[in-house]
Specification:
2 domains; mainly alpha; single chain; 250 residues; flat; 69% helix
Length: 250
Amino acid sequence: MNLLLSLSKSIDALNERIGVTISWALLVAVLICSGNAMVRYLFNTSSNAWLEIQWYLFGAIFLLASSYTLKRNEHVRIDVIVGHLSKRAQAWIDILGFLFFMLPVTALILYFALPYALESVRNQEVSSNAGGLIVWPAKILIPVGFLLLTLQGISELIKRIGFLMGKVDASAFEKQQVTPVEHIAVVAAANADSPPDPRHAPMNDPLRDPLHDPSPETLPTTARDAAPGSINTSITGSATGNSTGNVAGA
């Protein structure tokens, strides 16, 4: 089993690297699409080659990144019932799904796609559109993509079996998502670590009302620059003088 787990890690690393690399093709496709549209509207000209390379890039993204998506468990799933089952029951359902549905289908597509791509390579197939690109590199992506998807399916199968045997943690194949409760806890922790904002404090809070804040920052500049003893003396003297004057006047 340890050998199979090592094989699974190698497959995961391969598809991880391919998925991260091919993600840049999306940016390239967007730039080409935008540039082609600008040239068409500004100069009233275009090229079939620039249109077809967009299709090739999108095909490469979906075919080569599907195994990476499976590794991250990000494919669309309807877990209305399965989501309420135990982890072991979910692992068993995944095993049956891989064995009787996914792997047979990917193997069947790979069986038919390989000679289809090789025939295109043999004939050096090109686009039927004027000024189009060669087609056989795009057709090679079909068996390559399904080969990677088949390998990742085998890796996921190994991880589920390893989980049932107690050798793999469920986090190795679970979809990583943050629940609303976890999100609220993260926000609360971030707010607790940050200093309070005086603008959000109540009106009678020392943070908002400087009259209740004896800190030096709220005192006038002359008083803040003076020594603490002189401030107390001047305040006391002023109060005493005012009281004496009031009594004398009376």
